[in-house]
Amino acid sequence: MSYAGKIEPPTAPSLVGPEPLEIDLDVNGQRVAVKVDPATTLVEVLRNTLGLTGTKIGCDRGACSACSVWLDGDVIASCMTFALDVRGRKIVTIEGLSKGDRLHPVQEAFIEHDALQCGFCTPGMIMSCARLVERNPQCTLDEVRQAVSGHLCRCGTYPNVFKATLAAAASVSGSKEAQK
């Protein structure tokens, strides 16, 4: 097979490290400059550098989902994500869900329906449930179960999480209907 043009070989990736480097991140709508070691995870930057301690470190292996945040609108485990890999992307943490003093509907519903006990898994659960509600305000119980399927709650408050999420969805869905 012949090609009309010259094919360039792929360029080698640029190497970084081992010394720290300065990067810019978009966290909760704010541009922040941080200096990170190449092996630093996103959750470490959020908690230790930026002081956003709502995002929890549970297992530090991507198995419990306590560290869940949004990256460009998708729910990710921030303990399994290098800070260098999220440059130029939008990060939203539990602190970024509220609008000033107004909580996100899922945050309000978690309080109203007692969907938290020790609170350790709560931020990650809220991030996953809020993403579901924003994408599908008519979500079903099965969809809520799927959204939290990777979350580990040792207190066993799942039934209240389900109720809270469905209530928040109904609230959001109702307010969207009222706007029509």
What would the keywords be for this entry?
five-stranded mixed sheet, single chain, 5 helices, 2 domains, DNA polymerase, domain 1, alpha+beta, 33% helix, 5 strands, Ubiquitin-like (UB roll), 180 residues
What this model shows, in words?
It is an enzyme of class 1 (oxidoreductase). GO terms for molecular function: 2 iron, 2 sulfur cluster binding; anaerobic carbon-monoxide dehydrogenase activity; metal ion binding. With 180 residues, the chain is of the alpha+beta class. The chain has two domains: 21-96, Beta-grasp domain (Ubiquitin-like (UB roll)); 105-174, DNA polymerase, domain 1 (Orthogonal Bundle). It contains five helices and five strands, in the order ββαβββαααα. The protein has helices spanning 42-49, 105-112, 122-135, 141-147, 158-179, and strands at 21-27, 30-36, 68-71, 74-77, 90-92. It has a five-stranded mixed sheet, with helices on both faces. A hairpin with a 2-residue loop joins strand 1 and strand 2. Helix 3 packs parallel to helix 5. The longest helix has 22 residues, at 158-179. The chain starts with 20 loop residues before the first strand and ends with a helix.
Write the layout of secondary structure elements.
Layout: E1 21-27, E2 30-36, H1 42-49, E3 68-71, E4 74-77, E5 90-92, H2 105-112, H3 122-135, H4 141-147, H5 158-179
Parallel strand pairs: 1-5
Antiparallel strand pairs: 1-2, 3-4, 3-5
Summarize the structure.
This protein has 180 residues and is of the alpha+beta class. It is built from five helices and five strands, in the order ββαβββαααα. α2 (105-112) packs across α3 and α2 (105-112) packs across α5.
